[in-house]
Amino acid sequence: MATMKGATVVDVERCKGCGLCVLACPLDVLALTTKEVNRMGYNFAQEVLPETCTGCASCATVCPDACITVYRLKTE
């Protein structure tokens, strides 16, 4: 049976840390950084559970700055 595996890539320098992607992710794959900021001074989104991502792209859909890319791979 084939399953979907995903990978979420965040352009951290464009991310303004609004957190919408974190709220939209049904599997809690993303979180905002707490101890690190980008060059604009924002806490940015990052993958914290990459093995859980299914590539649903909910995070990318809600991102107002279009700084999230989701890749999908079918695995056997």
Give the gist of this structure.
This protein has helices spanning 20-24, 58-62; strands at residues 3-10, 30-32, 45-47, 68-75.
Describe this protein's structure.
The chain is α+β, with helices and mostly antiparallel strands. The protein has two helices and four strands; from the N terminus they run E-H-E-E-H-E. It has helices at 20-24, 58-62, and strands at residues 3-10, 30-32, 45-47, 68-75. The chain is elongated and about 45 Å long. The protein starts with a strand and ends with a strand. The mean pLDDT is 94.
The residue fraction in helices comes out at 10-25%
Biggest beta-sheet profile: 2 strands, antiparallel
Trace the largest sheet across and list its strands: 1-4
- What structural category characterises the helix and strand content? alpha+beta
Succession of helices and strands: EHEEHE
Percent of residues in beta strands? Answer: 25-35%
Q: Specify Rg, calculated over alpha carbons.
A: 12 Å
- List unreliable stretches of 5+ residues: none
Based on DSSP secondary structure assignment, what is the total number of beta strands?
4
Shape: elongated
Please report the distance between the alpha carbons of the first and last residues. Answer: 6 Å
The helix tally amounts to: 2
